[in-house]
Amino acid sequence: FVESYHPSSTMSLDEDARWLEWVTKQFESIAGEDKEIDLEEFKTALKVKESFFAERFFALFDSDGSKTISLDELLEALDLLIHGSETDKLRFLFQVYDVDGMCLDFSWPAGSGSIDPDELRTVLKSCLRESAISLPEEKLDDLTLALFESADKDNSGSITFEELKAELENFPEVMENLTISAANWLKPPGLEQKKGRHTPRYLTPAYWHNNSRKLLFLCAYTCLNLLLFITAMLKNAEGGFWYMVAKGCGQCLNFNCTFVMVLMLRRCLTWLRATWVVRVLPLDQNILLHQMVGYAIVTFSTVHTTAHFMNFVHLSQNSSYSLWEHLFTTRPGIGWVQGSASLTGMVLQIMICLMVVCSSTFVRRSGHFEVFYWSHLSYVWVWALLVVHCANFWKWFVVPGVIFLLEKLVGVAVSHMGGLYIVEVNLLPSKVTHLVIKRPQFFHFKPGDYVYINIPDIAKYEWHPFTISSAPEQPDTLWLHIRSMGQWTNRLYEYFRQPDSLNVLCVCISVCQCFVDGPYGTPTRQIFASEHAVLIGAGIGITPFASILQSIIYRMRKQNCPNCSYSWCENIKDSEMKLRKVDFIWINRDQKSFEWFVSLLTKLEMDQADEEPEGRFLEMHMYMTSALSKNDMKAIGLQMALDLLAKKEKRDSITGLRTRTQPGRPEWGKVFQKVAEEKKGKVHVFYCGAPALAKLIKAQCEHFGFNFYKENF
């Protein structure tokens, strides 16, 4: 349960002291009156769940063979691991693998004991379970043979300590981790030190450069609101302070309640993305701006309501109408439609607050998207009440409102043009539904675009947005990959799932009708105008990049000379294609998730030339977060074996791709440092996935001066 650093580091000494204190407390809380713990208590105290490793650690720590461990035995062994030499740590690793070995004794001479193939297979099998990797027994045999043959230098049929040490030296990254991490395999989750996160440095040139359009836009937005507020206050100075504040907020609400709609004119924004305007305005952050304006509306409306309330308190003291009549009746005659300003204002305040609460991240991400969807449709009633509530609102609303109405009418017309049917359904691992839809005749889109889909058999009136995962060059069908994360998506999966179905099921149908509204553009439209693009997909966040990668396949079609072995790619430098390099990074939690697009990735590897003059045009990087990373010593043997077998078979044992699947999470600093060193041109990073990871990646992009784009719709 320790992460040991160089002894000269004050921080590492502090961490060691905290760790030893934690172990002591854990031991004392578990041990009985005899002040010793047995194997089961050892598992509980140190939170070691894997039986094999728990038993091996226990046996090694039990120096007197009493089948119990005293606190002194435990601390003595762990102190040696923390402050021992590299050879000490290597010997501990060797004895974990040497199942027939005895207790932990760092004084043993090098070469004592040996590891036979059965012992190595037992260790690797436990490593696979720890990393949640499922491989057939034949593959486990291949891994065991690959590592054993490489380590057994003298072909003696067993691996000695010196041979294991020599084998580890062939893996510098493993030796580095072993040197840094003494007993990292024992570290409890609660004590794991969080790596320092790079928070955006709002005053640095890099931050201002990467966010210049958004910051300038927000400055202009803030100044406009201040101007509207002050102007309205000055015009109504005769009404007193609270009346002035109410009027100032009211004027700002006129603007913001209209502007919040402008930010969601998807067809107009999609069209503007193809013009020079995209270089001036932050069109790619329209969702973020829409949310910010929504919060501004709540703030202005709350202050507006409070100011009117205070003003009514004052008026009720000097008029024949009471405070209650001012608030809840039309008798005072306040408002331009039969004195209804107070009543409509109260209703508007409640509706606006409910809309904001129901659109919170918690509601949308917790499987209750329908709550957000239906509550947001109340915007129609909000606008209607605003027209009744405020005499001047219609002047602000009329032009954007007409455009909004036209967009909706066009959307209805396009979505119902021709009969669209789902022609094929594939149910994939982790409850992902792959829909293959007949493509409309005049449906044109760009890689990474998204559509709204309505399936009457699932929900007659609900429309949900999903990224198109097929390429524009694919003429007959559209692909959507939909992960079950809410009520509608779960109903979709269950609708097509047959009883006693297999894990992956293909159902061919031609009777399920659907309607598609779109396409709508996203930041990924800019990828082919980039020079060096880094595509990062987390889980199902791969979908926009699946479309992009398939489009790359079409644009990189190989041509072979019939008279020689020379081959080349046509259309690689078309009018829109400025790409010189693409790095694709896909992060998945489990092994089965890679099956979603493994055939596409295999085709990409096959179609790409093995060597090109300027290096590979496309590099793929796969990460599996449930697998123990190379700095976890329970995974060292497995990762070495996977590397050796991948080199021998020229394919990864986990996915079947040529690209080796890396365990754990990417070290973004090292990833982006490598990208920067390639110097292929201006780097643009495109991300689709969890918001928490987006913040981390964005901070790293700002550090390296890369442009960052996050998929939002």
Automatic annotation (TrEMBL):
* SUPFAM superfamilies, per database record: EF-hand, Ferredoxin reductase-like, C-terminal NADP-linked domain, Riboflavin synthase domain-like
Keyword Membrane carried by entry: yes
User: What InterPro entries does its record include?
Assistant: EF-hand-dom_pair (IPR011992), EF_Hand_1_Ca_BS (IPR018247), EF_hand_dom (IPR002048), FAD-bd_8 (IPR013112), FAD-bd_FR_type (IPR017927), Fe3_Rdtase_TM_dom (IPR013130), Fe_red_NAD-bd_6 (IPR013121), FNR_nucleotide-bd (IPR039261)
**Every EF-hand domain range:** 49-84, 139-174
Q: Which domain of life is it from?
A: Eukaryota
Q: What Pfam families does its record include?
A: EF-hand_5, FAD_binding_8, Ferric_reduct, NAD_binding_6
Subcellular location per the Swiss-Prot or TrEMBL entry: Membrane
Q: Which GO terms describe its molecular function?
A: calcium ion binding; superoxide-generating NAD(P)H oxidase activity
Q: Keyword Membrane: yes or no?
A: yes
Describe its membrane topology.
Answer: Multi-pass membrane protein
Q: Which UniProt keywords apply?
A: Calcium, FAD, Flavoprotein, Membrane, Metal-binding, NADP, Oxidoreductase, Transmembrane, Transmembrane helix
Recorded GO CC terms: NADPH oxidase complex
Q: Name one GO biological process term.
A: superoxide anion generation
Annotated TM spans: 215-234, 240-265, 292-313, 333-358, 379-397, 409-429, 533-554
FAD-binding FR-type domain span: 415-526
- List, alphabetically, the PANTHER family matched: NADPH OXIDASE, NADPH OXIDASE 5
Can you name this protein? Answer: NADPH oxidase 5
